[in-house]
Specification:
Largest sheet: 6 strands, mixed
CATH architecture of the largest domain: 2-Layer Sandwich
CATH class of the largest domain: Alpha Beta
Order of helices and strands: EEEHHEHHEHEEEHHEHHEHHHEH
Radius of gyration: 18 Å
Number of helices: 13
CATH superfamily of the largest domain: Exopolyphosphatase. Domain 2
Strand content: 15-25%
Shape: globular
Length: 307
């Protein structure tokens, strides 16, 4: 049976099509798609997702629905996170998408988002029991720590690569003051993490920021999941990227790295600073990378509840 899982985030909208083997309760990836309509852009201005972003979202979901039908998916799982959680016009958007595309969108809580990220990203280290997962989104960052048997800590912080970029970075090439203010804010906002874990627990970073950085670190021009999934970034790698991104405009970043950073070239600096600062607070010098976040977790959760 084929299943589709869509993750509507504040920056990106991701599609996974997977095949479930009902006898073994396992699944395999058939297709992944990525688009960046950026629902969170300008959201703080009036509390509404803009007409431009809604138009882009409908275009992306229409394309995804055609792909889903082409693969004859029996189930469509569709979750939405921070942008849709906080937007005043979310209900109208959900109703319109249901009417036009017959896709049911579930706006999940920050805690549920963390749980699904944990389920999905944990597949990057299948042989490890205790682990921490860090999911950096456009409008929020989820952190969850636990094992196969027990969750010890989970929290959604309302800070992501998009809203922190809009809050702190106002120059085409960021100034030293802008970067220092952003770093200080992140360190203060995530400071509670210093008391909950040690460096002996593996840290898995999920979603677009770490996967894009890993692809760039590997010198890839085209994204290759087989190389990126389970790869490693170090604090030194992140420091190097921050130094480089700080001296470039978004156009320069896109020109240098191409489509692996397309759609996040203007927010990758803030995402990298979040990743580096949180990793330092957690005293993890080594970060495992996973692109298998919420959409994978949704499939795992569906299998657990239905087979």
């Amino acid at each position: 049976m084929n299943i589709a899982s869509i993750d509507i985030g504040s920056n990106t909208v991701l599609l996974l099509i997977a095949e479930i083997e009902e006898r073994t309760k396992n699944f395999k990836t058939i297709l992944n798609k990525y688009e960046a309509p950026r629902l969170g852009k300008g959201l703080k201005n009036n509390g509404n997702i803009s007409d431009e972003s809604i138009k882009k979202l409908l275009y992306v979901l229409t394309s995804y629905k055609n792909t889903i039908d082409e693969y004859n998916c029996k189930i469509i799982l569709c979750t939405a996170t921070n942008a849709m959680r906080v937007a005043k016009n979310s209900k109208e958007i959900i109703s319109r998408i249901k009417t036009e595309l017959d896709i049911n969108i579930e706006i999940i809580t920050g805690e549920k988002e963390a749980e699904l990220s944990f389920l999905g990203a944990s597949t990057a280290l299948p042989g490890v029991d205790s682990r921490m997962v860090l999911d950096i989104g456009g409008g929020s960052t989820e952190i969850i720590y636990g094992s196969n048997e027990k969750i010890n800590y989970k929290k959604s912080f309302p800070y992501g690569a998009v809203n922190l970029t809009e809050e702190f970075i106002h120059s085409e090439i960021p100034t030293k003051v802008e970067i220092e203010l952003l770093e200080n804010f992140i360190r203060k906002s995530f400071s509670e993490l210093s008391s909950i874990v040690t460096s002996s627990i593996p840290l898995i970073a999920a979603a677009g920021t770490p996967t894009s950085l890993s692809a760039a670190n590997l010198g890839l021009r085209d994204y290759d999941e087989s190389l990126v999934e389970g790869s490693v970034l170090t604090i030194m790698d992140l420091e190097r990227f921050i130094l480089e991104f700080s001296s470039l405009s978004p156009a320069d970043i896109l020109n240098k790295y191409g489509k692996i950073l397309s759609g996040r070239e203007d927010v990758i600096l803030a995402g990298t600073i979040i990743l580096k600062t949180v990793s330092e607070i957690l005293t993890n010098e080594k970060i495992y990378v996973s692109g298998r976040g919420i959409r994978y977790g949704s499939v795992i959760n569906y299998i657990r509840n239905n087979f």
